[in-house]
Structure to design on (324 residues):
């Protein structure tokens, strides 16, 4: 079967009556419980894409040994998922490179002729692993894109000025207490350079560290990026998310950026779990004809949840609430 990566429909629920938030939650959250497969301790921070009129994805599933790994999954409606019980086995000629240390926080994007996957890959510390698949059955490992320590590698959905572009967030080897968003460019998905600074921490919810979330969405006014931001409270890190609009040709130039967050951990499944107070987006589906967006995010490092918004309302909010 040839691949059709177009979105045929979007999982969707209207904004609840009386709600004025720009981003609202799905009423049946969480969509993926922590124990969807028998071996899983938690399933969260995962990526979903359209595929042949259905949905496929790469899911972070930590097992009951608390090893972090990636599983392939599928859904007819983008809400009810089936996950492969075994982790993805990466095909690579160099066994040393494909060796498992840990794998987490995947993003998936269609570029040109295949789905690319980026994730945080254990390689003498965390760095950005890159791979691809055509069918979500066979997965090919490309390379570690950058040196350790780095996380939150997120590819753009097309080349810009002839080059592949990827966000990342240089870090340390632990629960990094700092972090800004950079981007790097590549002619071939292997050699990455021409690094640019995109944006750094700001006050409040985004004061400790920030990192790119889902694949950026191309709009007439710029690239719409949802990103997570962290504040350090008396009780530890709190992960919320906001949005930024970036220049189409020079995506390291920030046009607008939300001063208030769009969604912060407030429901039980965001506030209670293995890591309390985390809302961590890794995927966003965008229906161009209607402007609808469905955001997949991890709740409390335990479950996967869904939220909705509309592209014009997010951009309007950005214009009215931006602080650079
Ligand atoms: C980050 C990553 C995410 C996680 C978050 C909160 O450093 O490890 O996977 O959701 O911390 O624990």
């Amino acid at each position: 079967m040839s691949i059709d990566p177009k979105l045929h429909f979007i999982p969707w629920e209207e904004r609840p009556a009386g709600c004025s938030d720009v981003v609202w939650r799905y009423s049946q959250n969480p969509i993926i419980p922590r124990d969807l497969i028998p071996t899983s301790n938690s399933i969260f921070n995962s990526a979903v894409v359209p595929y042949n009129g259905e949905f496929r994805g790469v899911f972070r599933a930590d097992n009951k040994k608390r090893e972090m790994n990636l599983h392939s999954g599928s859904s007819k409606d983008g809400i009810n998922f089936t996950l492969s019980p075994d982790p993805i086995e990466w095909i690579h000629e160099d066994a040393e490179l494909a060796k498992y240390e840990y794998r987490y926080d995947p993003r998936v994007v269609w570029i040109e002729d295949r789905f690319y996957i980026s994730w945080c890959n254990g390689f003498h510390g965390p760095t950005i692993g890159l791979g691809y698949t055509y069918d979500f059955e066979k997965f090919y490992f490309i390379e570690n894109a950058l040196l350790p320590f780095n996380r939150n590698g997120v590819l753009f959905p097309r080349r810009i000025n002839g080059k592949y572009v990827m966000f990342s967030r240089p870090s340390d080897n632990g629960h990094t207490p700092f972090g800004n968003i950079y981007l790097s460019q590549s002619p071939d998905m292997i050699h990455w350079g021409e690094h640019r600074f995109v944006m750094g921490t700001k006050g409040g919810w985004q004061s400790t560290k920030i990192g790119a979330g889902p694949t950026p969405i191309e709009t007439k006014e710029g690239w719409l990026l949802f990103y997570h931001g962290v504040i350090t409270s008396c009780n530890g890190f709190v992960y919320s998310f906001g949005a930024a609009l970036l220049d189409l040709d020079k995506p390291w130039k920030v046009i607008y950026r939300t001063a208030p967050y769009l969604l912060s951990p407030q429901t039980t499944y965001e506030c209670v779990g293995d890591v309390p107070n985390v809302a961590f987006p890794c995927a966003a589906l965008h229906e161009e004809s209607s402007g609808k967006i469905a955001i997949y995010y991890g709740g409390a490092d335990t479950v996967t949840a869904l939220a909705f918004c509309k592209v014009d309302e997010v951009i309007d909010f950005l214009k009215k609430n931006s602080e650079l």
